[in-house]
Amino acid sequence: MTSILDLPIVARVRRNHAVEHATIHVLSARNPHLRLMGRTGPSGFTLYGWVHTEEVASAVAEALNRLQAGEYHLAIHPHCGTNMVVGGMLAGLAAFAALIFPRRSKWRLSRLPDMMLATMLTLLVAQPLGLILQERVTTSPEVRGMFVRRINRQQWGRLVVHEVILGQE
Length: 169
Hints:
Elements lengths: L7 H23 L6 E5 L2 E5 L4 H16 L12 H20 L11 H27 L7 E11 L2 E10 L1
Antiparallel strand pairs: 1-2, 2-4, 3-4
């Protein structure tokens, strides 16, 4: 039976997501003060942040080489949107559960400490859960045969955007 993760477009986005993360790891190691944001799609990924195109090209090449050499840990990033989604969903569910859990008082504001505690405890497990979800669902470090087709640079005022288009042999 085929998993949704094996569908060609899903598999492609997962591989692109891994290359995006690995590229951000490489760029961040070179410049720890660099502020970047990325977004992945079926054709590649987009980086938002002040970085030179040559640096992006070099970092993507290194990221692909390192992933292909087995450095799969580069596919996982602690600041990935997956972690934020997991944290937000779990925190919302925990707060809701604390709100509807029966208590003596019917005054909802009296449940605020319970909601805060439930949310805080949930956020403690959200980060490791997000990392597991990245590893098993939202990224795939199996990038053999991938290459950079082109890198497009745009700038709007102080915002620099690099669109990295990836290919597969």
